[in-house]
Design a protein that fits this description.
alpha+beta, Ribosomal Protein S5, domain 2, 3 domains, eight-stranded mixed sheet, elongated
Amino acid sequence: MTIKILAPQLANQIAAGEVVERPASVVKELVENSLDAGASQIEIDIDKGGSKLIRIRDNGSGIAEHELVLALSRHATSKISDLDDLAQITSLGFRGEALASISSVSRLTLTSKPAGQTAAWQAQAEGRDMAVTVKPAAHPDGTSIEVVDLFFNTPARRKFLRTDKTEFSHIDELVKRLALSRFDVSWQLTHNGQHVRRLPHANTAQTRQKRVAMLCGKVFAEQAAYIENNCGAIKLSGWILAPQACQNQTSCQYSYVNGRMMRDKLLNHAIRQAYGERLTPEQQPGFVLYLEIAPSEVDVNVHPAKHEVRFHQARLVHDFVVSALTDALSQLTETQPLAPQQVANTAAAYQVSAVSGGSAARQWEMVPDAMPSAAGRAARSEMVSQSQTRQQLQYLQGQHATVNADAAVKIKTRLLMLPAGQGCAIAQGPDGLVLLDLAASLAAHWLNDPTQAPLLLPLRLPITDTEKQQLLSAASLLQQLGFNILIQESTAIVRAVAPWLRSTSISQWFLTLLPVLQPANPVKSSREILSMLLSSYWLTEAVLLDYFATTLTDSDNWLAVPLDLSSSIQALIQQGQS
């Protein structure tokens, strides 16, 4: 057999087999082009389910006259230009195949006028010949594309189309997904001359909520809660339906990555895992979720229709979504106050929280256990193992440490010795050697700045009944020390700690700290607790350097005592430093 290059028309029709599955596929490709062009108004006209006519009008940036023919050529695009662009794609389209593929199986007319152009121009292409004709036209700023007689020259493909009603239902569902991804765009959809959807711009929280109600139903809008969670460059936001409100029928299940519609297996698995045993096998979760991540951390060039993506840190993304949604779903469960003395006899989940109004008092909130069975608890424990959590935390901390590298070096030149077990350090001050009381310095700063630092992923620690009682007894003190902890059955979930503790191996020392915090124990002050931490192996020099580099770089913030050492001792110290 002789090897030869395929004719452009045949190559385009082969590509059309991947890109143009049905009329809804055409609408998707053309509307994504409009969004990439910066359109704020999009009108979609459909006749006979899209088999007869698909017309897309927008007020985007338009296409210049001299680029119209090129726009209908295969592998022609304005979205990317080199390999570096492919590694961090921010546009919805980038392949440069859609218009050429669509025009190869239909009669396509493209009319456009950029704002800086005096007149509009129109390009027409039809079927196998692909000959493009260009002529003047009347058109406002923006672009219109008409796709007539889809698959007119490929009858084998045309016979696979369903009824007009079925094909339009796919288009309507697509428009819903698109409209939920871009609240800043107004949408209009008509079928056979009848208006089906009119969605004005939704630039406020109230109007966005109204659009969600229009597209997902009033019941979903009333029973879903808006959530927002982020860690570093990853952010998850959107609406999620409380478990008790989920129905047996599939409701809204829409997910987006950087504004791109997704049917990604990883995200779907993470969402279902977060719901876990909160749902019966018949119930379906409901959600409209938006994942935002650095473009360089996701590869969108893995599926012809761009329905799936590949994350460079797939496990990190998966576990972040599971953790964020698990936390949100726990808070969505109905709550009622519970006295601390009742906790031991109740198989439920508890969370330390401040009483509204800023009161110094504390209360325990009861959340009915969502995973009562042993199998359910095992599944929850397996959700994010401690080793994986530590690896992911180290990844985030590595990013943070890079930012503060210069400051850390400056501090290290002043800290000469960090005597183990002493809670102090010897440093070179402007007037000679000084003894730094690390515990006192840290305690003063800690008490003046009681902020919490959320962990990348909540740390799940298995606990015994005794440890659970110790946590409950020390709840108030733990909150004063900057901890945010949730107890579920036999697991303590550490969600936030004081900023200077985030870089430590919390799983190695947290449970050991509990006996010291009990009311009967004489150790109660933050100063004494810090001394204990600093005198153990729990805090390393690297941890202290990182913290001091970001907070106590000014020597006035250190509690220092001048040292009167002999010259020989000073020489030994300086020799050790070098």
